[in-house]
Amino acid sequence: MSRKMRMTQVSAIEDISPHMRRIMLKGADLHDFPAEQESAHVKTIFPQPGQTQPRLGLYLGAKKWMRSYTVRAFDNHNKTLTVDFAVNDHQGLATNWASEAKVGDYLGIAGPGPTKHTDLDAAWHLMVADITGLPALAAILEKLPKKARGFAFIQVPSKADTQTISSPKGIKVNWIINSNPNDNKLLNEVMKVNWQPGEPSIFIATQSRHMKAIKAFVKKQPGYNKSKTYASGYWKA
Question: What is the mean pLDDT of the chain?
């Protein structure tokens, strides 16, 4: 990841579903933030207790105040960075900040890192995410060429958490409603996939244990290519 750190401020907030809060960030430091980085991750840097602004820089204990989040969108013209936060299911440094955020609040940003799912022209695509991986998967869907085909499985806690996402007609988007985060329904759905000819580009972003089980399954399927697979545990139960 690039070590460049930037100070931003919340410019707008939108609750796009019961468990997803969209926060738009602006600031002079975003003047050279790179375009076309949707689905990449940044390190969000949060204020420490008693502070209104986060402390930027690499110092002993700095990682305690950082968390990885996805670039959901970046408006290069207006220099506005959009980050979606999963909220209202658990408490923690990032979710608590996002739940209580107000316009004008400060947030540090470091990065971005590399984009995910880079083979957009693969023979077909398999994308799997729970609500924590939804922002990255949604950003990828919006990048895919019109000719793309494949499957996307997205698990959310309630029907109200489904979103309208622009995607190619050849990608079948399946919403899995599951309020029990310990139940690996995503694996059950992936196991039903009619495996397509050719090498798929695979994206998996879920709870760590679930990710490992899904990855173990897809590795045994025809056409699997490790170099075309991104699998990451976005959180631990």
Answer: 95
